């Protein structure tokens, strides 16, 4: 099977922008106070920009998917194939729901200005938009009760992963603030956000692990586990698990060593070394998250091993 790089690239772009949109809006609600959101993160430009890019990438993805299903080149755009996809498939309905949700995101983000109620609307609509990606992957391939379990696990996996990735974006933005704009208030805010993400991060990791096991069982099955290293799907899945393990190790380092060291450095008025260590760790963790999103985009275009179920 020939690798469809344009489709993989646009899938990755959608995973990245929608995860950032949902995760960052959610992080701004539980990690920051009302008066801090606009100044600490420049939240509105990030949300509006992510929403606009998601609309653009969704349009391109629809054209590429319709072309792939019709066996036609992506250009010129096959309007008949797009019409059939939109009118006669769950994938088309999911795409329409995503576009409607993104319009809501843009309207609420433009009006939000840090207000919790409107940011809650942004986060909810962004969650809906992110969840619709489950209909473009393996989560929608089964039928009956198994199909609903698979789809539900895929949606929860997407939302938990998106919340983690978006929170990483928010934390990176906080610790990467230019030195000239870092004052005592920002340092305190940053420490509180890092510390507060500990419990949320634990819940997200638990959700990712449980839903990942469910998805692996349905897509691979125990009987096929020994064959994973011999297939492209298995090799990419193993790489994804290795990167996830690296993210867990870095998250533990941040929570149990670097964040407490950062707190002590604030009290001693000597935060530069601790902040540099946090920046490096969060940058590597965020890079792992980006690589995982790229692998997920690629995995979704491959045929998984037959399940033993």
Automatic annotation (TrEMBL):
Pfam families: CopD (PF05425). GO terms for cellular component: plasma membrane. The chain crosses the membrane at residues 12-32, 52-72, 92-110, 117-135, 155-176, 197-220, 232-253, 282-300. Keywords: Cell membrane, Membrane, Transmembrane, Transmembrane helix. InterPro entries: CopC/D (IPR032694), CopD (IPR047689), Cu-R_CopD_dom (IPR008457). It is found in: Cell membrane. Residues 192-299 form the Copper resistance protein D domain. GO terms for biological process: copper ion transport. It comes from the Bacteria. It is a multi-pass membrane protein. NCBIfam families: copper_CopD. This is Putative copper resistance protein D. It comes from Sphingomonas rubra. The lineage of its organism: Bacteria, Pseudomonadati, Pseudomonadota, Alphaproteobacteria, Sphingomonadales.
């Amino acid at each position: 099977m020939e690798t469809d790089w344009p489709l993989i690239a646009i899938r990755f772009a959608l995973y990245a922008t929608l995860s950032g949109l949902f995760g960052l809006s959610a992080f701004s609600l539980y990690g920051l106070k009302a008066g801090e959101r606009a100044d600490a993160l420049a939240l509105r430009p990030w949300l509006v920009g992510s929403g606009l890019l998601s609309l653009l990438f969704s349009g391109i993805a629809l054209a590429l998917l319709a072309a792939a299903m019709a066996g036609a080149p992506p250009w010129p755009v096959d309007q008949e194939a797009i019409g059939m996809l939109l009118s006669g498939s769950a994938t088309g309905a999911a795409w329409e729901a995503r576009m409607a949700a993104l319009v809501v995101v843009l309207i609420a983000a433009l009006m939000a200005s840090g207000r919790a109620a409107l940011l809650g609307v942004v986060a909810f609509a962004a969650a809906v938009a992110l969840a619709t990606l489950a209909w473009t992957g393996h989560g929608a391939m089964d039928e009956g009760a198994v199909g609903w379990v698979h789809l539900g696990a895929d949606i929860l996996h997407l939302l938990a992963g998106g919340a983690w990735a978006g929170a990483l974006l928010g934390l990176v933005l906080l610790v990467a603030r230019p030195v000239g704009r870092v004052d005592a208030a920002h340092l305190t805010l940053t420490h509180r956000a890092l510390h507060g993400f500990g419990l949320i991060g634990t819940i997200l990791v638990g959700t990712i692990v449980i839903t990942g096991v469910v998805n692996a069982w349905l897509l691979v099955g125990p009987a096929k586990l020994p064959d994973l290293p011999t297939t492209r799907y298995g090799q990419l899945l193993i790489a994804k698990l290795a990167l996830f393990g690296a993210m867990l190790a870095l998250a533990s380092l941040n929570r149990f060593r670097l964040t407490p060291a950062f707190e002590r450095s604030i009290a001693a008025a000597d935060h530069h070394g601790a902040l540099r260590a946090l920046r490096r760790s969060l940058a590597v963790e965020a890079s792992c998250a980006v690589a995982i999103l790229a692998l997920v985009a690629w995995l979704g275009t491959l045929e998984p091993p037959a399940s033993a179920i």
